[in-house]
Amino acid sequence: MRGAVLYAPGDVRVEQRQDPRIEHPTDAVIRLAATCVCGSDLWPYRGVEPVNKPSPMGHEYVGVVEEVGGDVRLVKPGQFVVGSFFASDNTCEICRAGYQSSCVHREPVGALGAQAERLRVPLADGTLVATPEAPPEDLVPGLLAASDVLGTGWFGAVAAEVGPGRTVAVVGDGAVGLLGVLAARQLGAERIIAMSRHADRQKLALHYGATDIVTERGDEGVARIKDLTDGLGAHSVVEAVGTQESMMQAIRATRPGGHVGYVGVAHGVELPGTELFYSHVHLHGGPAPVRRFLPELIDLILERRIDPGLVFDLELPLDQAAEGYRAMDERRAVKTLLRP
Amino acid sequence: MRGAVLYAPGDVRVEQRQDPRIEHPTDAVIRLAATCVCGSDLWPYRGVEPVNKPSPMGHEYVGVVEEVGGDVRLVKPGQFVVGSFFASDNTCEICRAGYQSSCVHREPVGALGAQAERLRVPLADGTLVATPEAPPEDLVPGLLAASDVLGTGWFGAVAAEVGPGRTVAVVGDGAVGLLGVLAARQLGAERIIAMSRHADRQKLALHYGATDIVTERGDEGVARIKDLTDGLGAHSVVEAVGTQESMMQAIRATRPGGHVGYVGVAHGVELPGTELFYSHVHLHGGPAPVRRFLPELIDLILERRIDPGLVFDLELPLDQAAEGYRAMDERRAVKTLLRP
């Protein structure tokens, strides 16, 4: 089969890869209907994370089950399924508490390379959620978004304790930040401040329910949030970038007793203990337990109550994955969908 | 009046200080029944925090109201009152959310020096809680503990989301950690692991409801907590020290999705963003909003359902404050009560 492989920073190639097969009785093999490029794929693409060897890429996927191992009970060949970027058994104590991305048996799907024609999914019964029937073609991008960026933005909002009456700020206007706005709206936030300086992303943020746009960053951005909240800061802040600046912006924009939900994969972040102590914020986040939210998110998408697929503003055949990475790296695209 | 003043690290003197008086119409002046030395007083005493000028010391206090300003409505001369280390209006939006120690009008009582015969308390109506009548003498130490260390340990347990069915670990066996154990028991924890290597403190921890004692620290301590929790870590960890080692010990001893409540005043702490991200813990803490808990804690003490006063294992006249500091610095005492 064909699949995307990162050879070095900036060097993504689509080439022939070995066909996946059932390796463990809990595996499934799926044929991908769609896959995509994640903001986190840009970390190694940009050389911020080392690339030590040619690495299959991709961890977002929807598709049709082709084959299952002998111990798979819930997932059946022919079903359309949505997965997430950590395989999880969904039965251990950590999974049952809603932290499937820290499952005691978790396996990163990214290492298997979902930007490909087919994918082996470990722990299929715990990891995959099937739709009641094959979804209409136009909903496939939304279901694909649920596989990571929607689930991640949603977790950011849940971790930030978004709810009715709350003022929410979202730091980061990538796909996760934009879907954090969508999640905040769905979770009943009263006011949603999107921090963005890009006209097209501001537009989508407003479409998803943002009530205010703040273009300033860093301390100026914090000052604007304070201005908008009687000097107190937001109740809830979703951090969807992962840098030192964005984390500090999120913490400082949150009122004492408020909540920061951080889902940007941290890179080079060191949190100063004394400032954090006196900030009085709640801090929670990490790799989103997308599996916790998948059933609900899939329903919302199939009922056409949310349209997370709008974050895909570039669609390419899998063979043009390199251009898909380039477009995101150069910020010409928010998110690239790839058709195998 | 006489009061304790820190001149330099290790140099505490009890000397004549100016008598406090009503300066603002929201002030009260109280005559102290008891005051004490806090673990956090040891930071400047040990030179970890700079001592730039002679500084009145102390921020824990109970006593009888002598005089109130013209705007004070709730607190009356003659009442026995308990306060906390930040004065707060108890009416602003932050106070109403339960974060009185971040009140928009907060004032640190420590700057006024509660290790003294009398004390001016700003924002008296918001800060002070009166007992229904003068308490029996033997309950005064417990009420004094409520002023900080009990309220702080309690906040640590609340911030760590302690509750029925939970396994709780407490890092730090000072007065705050010991009262964190007491709080965990009151809040219904199923299992309470006290981390302590001092026999007398272990004994008090067990008295307060600890079910297990772990003497190891750092990574070894974390490994012991994992051993005791099926390899997962505690649901809730109370951090009551404030060093890099204790914070990392707390974070690493907490299971994914679990909660760290940190109340040790952070000194030199830098939290590594990537480890925090993948830890999946909830982090909350800071200066305890003791005022939130005072009414409930006072009731528990007056009903003799808890005895937080046991943390005072040394009682001295105010004039011997220097010996009180020394005994705590040398770990001969957990906590020193001073009688003005």
From TrEMBL, chains A, B:
Record's keyword annotation contains Magnesium: no
Lineage: superkingdom: Bacteria
Domain Alcohol dehydrogenase-like C-terminal: 175-290
Entry cofactors: Zn(2+)
Domain Alcohol dehydrogenase-like N-terminal: from-to ranges: 25-124
InterPro entries: ADH-like_C, ADH-like_N, ADH_Zn_CS, GroES-like_sf, NAD(P)-bd_dom_sf
Family, similarity comment: Belongs to the zinc-containing alcohol dehydrogenase family.
Protein name: Zinc-dependent alcohol dehydrogenase family protein
Organism: Dactylosporangium aurantiacum
